[in-house]
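Problem statement: downstream parser choked on a complex file, so we are re-checking the raw output for the (R)-mevalonate run. The parser issue turned out to be on our end (a line-ending mismatch), but while we're here, posting the original submission so the record is complete.
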Amino acid sequence: MKKKTSRVSGFYKLDRKERLKKVGEFANLKDEDINAMEKGLSLELAERMVENVISTLKIPLGIGVNFLINDRDYLIPMAIEESSVIAAASNAAKICRKTGGFRASSTEPIMIGQIQLISKNPEKAREVILRNKSRILEIANEQDPTLLGLGGGALDLEVRILKTRKGRMVISHLLVDVRDAMGANIVNTMAEAVSPFMEEITGGKTFLRIVSNFSTKRLARAEVTVSKEEVGGEEVVDGIIKAYEFAASDPYRAVTHNKGVMNGISAIVLATGNDTRAVEAGAHAYAARNGKYQPLTSWKMDGDGNLNGRIELPLAVGIVGGATMNPTARVALKILGVKTASELAEVMASVGLAQNLAALKALASEGIQRGHMSLHAKNIAMMAGAKGKEIDRIAEILVKEKNIRVNRAKELLGVKK
Ligand code: MEV
């Protein structure tokens, strides 16, 4: 059997149906999956997902190609409204696969549930809670026998005393291995379930019982080494490292640097029906975990003058439950072919690193506007009425003339103004 590869050249030149067919062959999609991709989210299902529905908003869903992660080929579904992101990720993945692609890893999928308890004697309350840890974990685990059967469940409890302007509070962290779920639901259920017992044993009162989106125990990492030739030479390698050092020293730059990282990550989070807000909030908090907002990636030159990059961030994403039930998201997960939520997080981290590489490589050499402009020119050509092959021809002239305007496109098309 022919080995499956995500290395596809000229994918962008195919028409949409041909692309979908190719992806279908790669991921063994069934007719019903292809139909789901064609149809998108129905209004009927949308009404079951959220309140007060009047419509659905469509976002382009494209495929990032060329990704090789832990020796496996992946096609990456990316839902995003911004042009150039998918092309940039695919390009970076192409140059990364020449040196073996990405190496990614992750921690166990452990989420944190917070329980806020107010007690007259916080030290005593803390001690009593810790003494009753095993009963508390038992109550938590009674909430989800299925999770337990899958090898997950509440594992541990950490308790600290927090000084606030409203006095001292006892904050407990319930650590739950949520396996393949994003986990917010189960963690919230467990936190609510254990709080009456915690009140009973401490004589205190619980207030908030909710998941923390700062999921510092659920991290994903990726690393890549790219040859200096592939990056564009020693000067570009040096430029990328200087760009990283700029971000490492300046939050104004670090935020934009991380925005580029999240272009890739949030696009997969959205495509797979995961919670973009949870991932974004966690990622940015992680970037500031040492008290100063820092880049989520780092770049250095190795002994041979090649470029080495790393990324680490919390990624609370699931492959079961929640909005992953969206039919398009289900097919997106099939295209990825990930077997676990951890594998999904590893893919996301790799794509974030690729996206950052693409941005820094462009910024350190030609700037990003050229790539942006050619797509913009295509849009302008279409706005002027260009169809089919005309679109590329007109766009090329507009870019060459550095005059990307609808009026000029109309002139070139011979359209009367
Ligand atoms: C644009 O969406 C993202 C970039 O600004 C990221 C960066 O500057 O690193 C190109």
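For whoever reads this later: The chain has 17 helices and ten strands.
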